[in-house]
Specification:
Layout: E1 9-14, E2 19-35, E3 38-49, E4 55-63, E5 67-71, E6 77-81, E7 84-88, H1 98-101, H2 111-125, H3 129-146, H4 154-163, H5 172-188, H6 194-231
Antiparallel strand pairs: 1-2, 2-3, 3-4, 4-7, 5-6
Helix pairs in contact: 2-3, 3-5, 3-6, 4-5, 5-6
Bound molecules: zinc ion.
Length: about 240
């Protein structure tokens, strides 16, 4: 019987394991083109993580000028290329909060917010920073509507949040930064960098937690507390 060819493997970032893993190359297409004295290479590979079996696509782009010698642990010299790598689905650029992963907001009342957040995180993962900035502002506006804010202008929304005692006056500047950044992206084409987006996202996550998830959890705990109270034996008379 003919011997099976050895499986081709390489190390790549597994989005599910959140780290570099040994992956099996399930299929690959290699392309190259020569322009003057440069050869441009493009490798497309379908990879399967050996740990969790997650399957994804990796595109590596490089050219002949980026090759350099690398010595392995046995002292053998191999030529390797500096590659620009792109993954599909993209590698997560910001870890989603636990409540988003567990789809806590994927309810009839909060579905619009769940969708806006899902699109915003996808924009961050895909390096669409301007759209992510707009998504963060939109998610803030939807959250405000869900907790009963009627104002439609962002300045008025912030004031109404204070007058209804839903945020403190000290929170206004922090949330104002989120609104200003979103406005600048929507109307003036401003592109926040990755660090800015992380900060804006964290401000939004705190706001959503305080406005919606905290009260949701308190309501759940109230229900559990009532059930416990009903089971606790009453205090004996005269004790
Ligand atoms: Zn994996």
């Amino acid at each position: 019987m003919a011997e099976q060819p050895a499986m081709k493997k390489l190390e790549a970032h597994c989005a599910r394991c959140s780290g570099i893993r040994s992956c099996i190359v399930e299929a690959e297409v290699k392309k190259s083109k020569e322009i003057e004295d440069t050869v441009y290479y493009e490798d497309w590979q379908i990879l399967k993580c050996e740990g969790c079996k997650y399957t994804f696509l990796l595109k590596s782009s490089y050219n002949n000028w980026t090759s350099r010698p690398v010595t392995d642990w046995q002292g053998e010299v191999e030529w390797t290329f500096d590659k620009e790598q792109k993954y599909w689905p993209p590698i997560s650029k910001r870890k989603r909060p636990e409540w988003l992963i567990k789809r806590k907001l994927d309810t009839e009342d909060n579905h619009r917010l769940y969708e806006a957040l899902t699109e915003t995180y996808t924009a961050i993962d895909s390096d669409l920073h301007m759209l992510a900035g707009i998504g963060i502002r939109t998610s803030f506006e939807i959250t405000s509507t869900l907790i009963g804010i009627e104002a439609r202008n962002f300045g008025q929304i912030l004031n109404e949040l204070i007058t209804k005692d839903l945020i403190k006056a000290a929170d206004k500047d922090r949330l104002g930064a989120l609104v200003n950044a979103g406005n600048a992206s929507a109307h003036r084409g401003w592109t926040p960098d990755h660090k800015d987006l992380n900060i804006l996202c964290e401000i939004l996550e705190h706001f959503i937690h305080d406005a919606i998830l905290g009260p949701m959890r308190r309501a759940e705990l109230d229900e559990h507390a009532r059930a416990i109270n009903a089971r606790v034996p009453p205090k004996p008379k005269g004790a």
